[in-house]
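=== How it folds ===
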Amino acid sequence: MKKAEPTGDEGMSFVFKALDHVQLAAPKGSEEEARAFFGGILGFEEVEKPEALRKRGGVWFKSGSCQIHIGVEEPFVPAKKAHPAFEVGNLEALKSHCRDHGVEVTEDNNLPGADRFYVADPFGNRIELLEWHRK
């Protein structure tokens, strides 16, 4: 792996603490489909958007410390390669749950130390769901 070139700011006074949220794009008017998928199928809880941001459309969700924001983008193009990855407890149960709800599951056994699969949200955005093997 290539090492980053020094910037002269090695004594930086800031630190990245956590990933606050991931945003996925969706077409205008797709909020109910997002609620059905992220809330109804995946079990995320809807989060109220701040008043100043509501006029933009979209909808926000959370589960534990994970937040996903669905934002309206026109023209809309789904993210087929770039994607969020959520670590899940009991991945096999989630896989069965997705299939039971008509969600296509794409299995991938190429990550050493983890089981994982991909789904697409109703708008075609790729989402990775994984569970690390613990010893």
Remarks:
- The chain has three helices and eight strands.
- The first helix runs from residue 31 to 41.
- The first strand starts at residue 22 and ends at 26.
- Residues 45 and 62 are 5 Å apart (CA to CA).
